[in-house]
TrEMBL record:
Domain Glutamine amidotransferase type-2: 1-223
Source species taxonomy: Bacteria, Pseudomonadati, Pseudomonadota, Alphaproteobacteria, Rhodobacterales
Keyword 4Fe-4S assigned: yes
Keywords associated with the record: 4Fe-4S, Glutamine amidotransferase, Glycosyltransferase, Iron, Iron-sulfur, Magnesium, Metal-binding, Purine biosynthesis, Transferase
Binding-site positions, [4Fe-4S] cluster: C240, C386, C443, C446
Listed name of the protein: Amidophosphoribosyltransferase
Catalytic activity: 5-phospho-beta-D-ribosylamine + L-glutamate + diphosphate = 5-phospho-alpha-D-ribose 1-diphosphate + L-glutamine + H2O
Length: 465
């Protein structure tokens, strides 16, 4: 998901709509905005579909007045899949001291247990979302102001959270103690901005101030500016390495480094680790493009767009059902036959999850007359599900969970299939010495199976580490 918030500008909701549009790649199912105005109070609008199809209407935006607003773009991980407007964020709760609205990116790993406990004690849940627990925990806290109630609530939850929240007068941003999901602070005029990624600051002309640090909470008001607190026991940082590989937009900056440059570097490492004799390097667009550019540069094999993407389709992975996803690949990608014919082609993609994309693409490339097909993947085999906010399927559906690399190669029937090593990936994201196996510098659980937070709800349901 993507989260965004603004304080201290006229008609903040308009800025939020723009910010969410720039974060649309983080979630395409639905979006929502909550604003606050001193006279009109809290207002909210939550809609299915793209930001540009909903939050561009003047009549809707006029219902969201005020100098303070937050928003969310959703892609379901926890909670029910598919249609239920009650699961669309931001969530708003009216309780002592005027209430609050929150937008959450990530996934809480003990939400089932918390929900059971809260329901037993009388909480009435409106949605099936893990994030709603936070509102109920805040409503029950005995602290005397909302930021402190939020600290209270967040000390009870486990898992990954980057949160943008608001009260009547404050914009609040928090990252979980390990900083699994991103969150940055920006400045626009006299106002302040919180955003999942820097690409959404650019769109509203805001300047990046800095990243919110793992375990940090910032409370921003027009009166006092930015105040920072540290509600949690310090822990080693575990930023999601997959944000670098796939999830973030390539024009965003993470840790002072452009995501595009990191991805290009992944391609360079990949070419060094898994060289191949071929005539053409093709990306699987768009997610494989920067890595393919790096691969071509390092290997000296010419780069070409052998697969053309229809720009009017969304990301395949985020389509909720398998059937739609299967169709999606063909609706979205087509082969550039004239370029491919008779060539030995290296196809570079960011990841293999179920193998649906790679299989379809291999067929298309061979149908177009390629002499050989070599897959090069810009991440290690995805063998474990993510429980921290990226929607990977159950373990059984992951190709790499049940097959060796050679079995996957046969399954896809390609001439070769190679993945970047974990060490190579760490080098590419800027860890010159590779992965520190005693205390990995990132979360890489979907590749390594080493979960930095025990996924307790899932273990309760029978998941085996
Ligand atoms: P597959 O078809 O193997 O199931 O999925 C691989 C494709 O989906 C890749 O081309 C990649 O761009 C995209 N993708 C891979 N992993 C993820 C993921 O965890 N989350 C999302 N949203 N998309 C992914
Ligand atoms: Fe990111 Fe993978 Fe960790 Fe999930 S399990 S947070 S996708 S690195
Ligand atoms: Mg892709």
């Amino acid at each position: 998901c993507g989260v965004f918030g603004v304080i201290g500008v006229a008609d903040a909701a308009n800025f939020v709509a723009l910010g969410l549009h720039a974060l649309q790649h983080r979630g395409q199912e639905a979006g929502g905005i909550v604003s606050h105005d001193p006279v009109e109070g809290f207002n909210s609008a939550r809609r299915f579909g793209y930001v540009r199809d909903n939050f561009t209407s003047q009549s809707l935006m006029q219902t969201l007045p005020g100098p303070l607003a937050i928003g969310h773009v959703r892609y379901s991980t926890a909670g029910s899949k598919g249609a239920a407007i009650r699961d669309v964020q931001p969530f708003f709760g009216e309780f002592a001291m005027g209430g609050a609205a929150i937008a959450h990116n990530g996934n809480l790993t003990n939400a089932d247990a918390l929900r059971r406990e809260l329901i037993e004690r009388g909480s009435i849940f409106q949605s099936s979302s893990d994030s709603e627990c936070i509102i109920h925990l805040m409503a029950r806290s005995l602290q005397r102001n909302i930021p402190e109630r939020m600290e209270d609530a967040l000390r009870r939850v486990e898992g990954a959270f980057s949160i943008v929240a608001m009260t009547r007068t404050k914009l609040i941003g928090v990252r979980d103690p390990m900083g699994v999901r991103p969150l940055v602070l920006g400045k626009v005029g006299d106002g302040w901005v919180l955003s999942s990624e820097t690409c959404a600051l650019d769109i509203i002309g805001a300047q990046l101030v800095r990243e919110i640090e793992p375990g940090e909470m910032v409370v921003i008001s027009e009166k006092h500016g930015v105040e920072s607190v540290r509600p949690f026991r310090p822990q080693p940082a575990k930023f999601c390495i997959f944000e670098h590989v796939y999830f973030s937009r390539p024009d965003s900056i993470i840790g002072g480094r452009s995501v595009y440059e990191t991805r290009r570097q992944i391609g360079v490492e990949l070419a060094r680790e898994t060289p191949v004799e071929a005539d053409l390097v093709c990306p699987v667009p768009d997610s494989g493009t920067p890595a393919a550019i790096g691969f071509a540069h390092e290997s000296g094999i010419p780069f070409g767009m052998g697969i053309i993407r229809n720009q009017y389709m969304g990301r395949t992975f985020i389509e909720p059902t398998e059937q739609i996803r299967n169709m999606g690949v063909r609706l979205k990608l087509n082969v550039n036959r004239a370029l491919i014919e008779g060539k030995r082609v290296v196809l570079v993609d960011d990841s293999v999850v179920r193998g649906t994309t790679s299989r379809k693409i291999k067929e298309m490339i061979l149908d177009a007359g390629a002499a050989e097909v070599h897959f090069r993947i810009a991440s290690p085999p995805t063998a474990w599900p993510c429980f921290y906010g990226v929607d990977t399927p159950q373990r059984e559906k992951l190709l790499a969970a049940t097959m060796t690399e050679e079995e996957m190669r046969q399954h896809l029937s390609v001439d070769s299939l190679k993945f970047i090593s974990l060490d190579g990936l760490y080098r590419a994201v800027g860890e010159a010495g590779g992965r520190d196996n005693n205390c990995p510098q990132h979360c890489d659980a979907c590749f390594s199976g080493e979960y930095p937070v025990i996924p307790s709800d899932m273990i309760q349901k029978g998941f085996q580490l």
